[in-house]
Specification:
GNAT_dom; 27% strand; five-stranded mixed beta sheet; alpha+beta; single chain
Amino acid sequence: MKVSILKKCDVEEMKKLFLDVFSNEPWFDKWNNEKQLNAYMKDLTENNNSLSLALYDEKGELVGCSLGYVFNWWEGREYFIKEFFVSRKKQNQGAGSTFLTLINNILKAEEIKHITLATEKTVPAYHFYQKNGFSVLKDSVYLVKKVSE
């Protein structure tokens, strides 16, 4: 498997892969508005600090993506993963762990010090990330507030 910056020619395939992964168990996201989906993907992939990494299999087919941002912080640069997904056909076969290892090598070469992300505690991804060296910060929480109508 190989990791590289997501190629422009693979953006449509990336969206299909994203929808396939997150429209199914355990997420069941409802991306019914294509305009909203395109805006979201553009937000993730076309900002100055975006870092969109793609995992390609031995045949050169796109099988995973890590979409996020690089930020500067007092401890150094960090990569915040907003979306991380691997083809459902490749899940539970080590592809995700391999992807994270390859990402780590790229980030190390770019002198990025940390990877951060958020996920739900009730989904398999939570244990996947812990298995791959991520830890819960004991003094931090992830907060959300719905904007009043």
